[in-house]
Amino acid sequence: MIGKKYIIYFVLVFFLVIYAIWGYIGFVQDKKEYLEKQNYTLQCTNMKKRLSAMILAKQKATVAMALILVNDKDLAKDILHKSIKKKYYAHLINSFKKDTLYKNIWIQILDKNLNSIYRSWSDKKDDSLANIRGDLQHVIRYKKIAYGICAGKYSLSINAVVPILKDGEVVGVLEVISHFNSISKQMKKFDVDSVVLLDEKYKTQLKHPFTNIFVDDYYVANFDAPKKLLQHLKKRGVKKHLGEICQVDNDYIRVTYPLSSLNGKVVGFYIMFKKTNTISKTALKFNTFKLFAFGMLVLMLFIGFVNIVMFYFMRKQKIYYKNIIDSSTNIVLVTDGKVVQDVNTRFFQYFYKYKTIDDFRVEYGCICDIFSAEEGYVQKEIEGIPWIEYLLAHNDKKYKAKIEYEGNISYFVVGVSLISKEKKHYSVILSDITNEEAYRIELEQLAITDVLTGIKNRRYFHTKIQEEISRVKRYKHHLSLVMFDIDHFKRVNDEHGHDVGDDVLVEYTKLISGMLREGDTFARVGGEEFMIILPHINKENAQAVAEKLRLSVENYKKVLPLTMSFGVVEYNDGDSVKEILKRVDEALYEAKETGRNKVVAH
After folding, report:
1. pLDDT tens for residues 450-487?
2. I need a labelling partner for 270 at 20 to 30 A (CA). Which of 440, 508, 511, 521 fits?
3. What residues act catalytically?
């Protein structure tokens, strides 16, 4: 009886274990499906973020191009006379194609009544956009730059509109138009196919469709939209793809991103398709859980080996997760806030001089020791608080770090999490954004640099002179301003041509730049007009600087011999920007009226 009793217990336990194992396997399968769904949701979020960032970057680039174009001092006059320099803009567009990522930039110029007087991509003109382009009316009314997504007569596009002023009044607007083709090409690098649609309600407004591709009544704005996906949209109906933001559809993850105009109206949709088989799986594989179930069965049958089995399993799991972390494209490290405790293999791909974390700790304790101490980036201490504590306390913001190592500069987004309260260990993730940060810096420089000469432009000058005056008011040091232009420059252009005139501007700008201090600001504020901001220099010394420049120009004679006239003023306590600019302009005017090739100080 005793033997039979144990046999019955054994059989019961056996079937209970089998039942528990299969129940656990079912749980694992459900968990796997849940993790896959979470992974798809994360992919959708990343796709939307990436697209939003690309659209914003292109909008900023379009604004930068528009700001460069409106620096043309003759533009207002050309609009009033309806005499646009077509060759000039054709040359600029070719330069954009050659020097930027954007290969299909359009330029449109309209008069103050919003009649199109020039389109770079079409000979059609003199038609009114007043009744269909609210963004243009907004620019005219408020005299402010506008940018966004626009539904026009030709296509769905990304545009930037800048008012053109003469004597404080709007005489017209300049519009730079870019398209979604470059964005869809960049998204293709991430295995994402794109279909960009103009809402059907704008079909009657679309007089000259650029791509001439339609699905139902929706205009397709990108040339590289895959035909297979267009057929799929037509078969299923476009409207069915516009409701759900993120959905798994026929082995694709589909993400629909509404495109809104300046006034917030949805004018189109960017639909992204990514094949599910191109997505990296993060859920544990079913075979791994089968092995775990087998280990559970062995555990129940051979209780004496429980410690060995558990040790083996935990060791295998530790190696598994270590491999996952090592496969990350980000730098992952563990620190106590002062000393780095552990890192993944990605760390040594950046800091290749070190073979182990101990080698690194010989020179540095904290990763923060190699952060560049520059404004706008994470430093060892922020507002007197250790960097990790500060980032944890302000985790609602995005933080960037700059690291210079062995002559290379890298930029990272920094994420920090507490992983052990007892030991106060933190995980730090450094995500490389070097390319994005370099591109952002390049765009910022583009917006403040004169295209021809490479020195600062008028926009930067006005920002800088306000900063310097604020600094003078605070610290009470000297500040002088030099304004000069080329004598008889119009004669240079008339007799030798604008190309020679441009060579003169470039060559003499190089000459003067080489004679200034690093802290001086040199800017081109007009066709042949320039400004120099001289901090910590009084009027007498500034006059001496200007005289030195005048003599150097007179003796240079490269390209063409010429002279320059200079006006010099020093900041007076209480001066506004307008007042000091007026005084230096009057000094230059006196130099011109009393014979030119001289320096006049007021």
Report:
1. 999 999 999 999 999 999 999 999 999 999 999 999 99
2. 440
3. 528
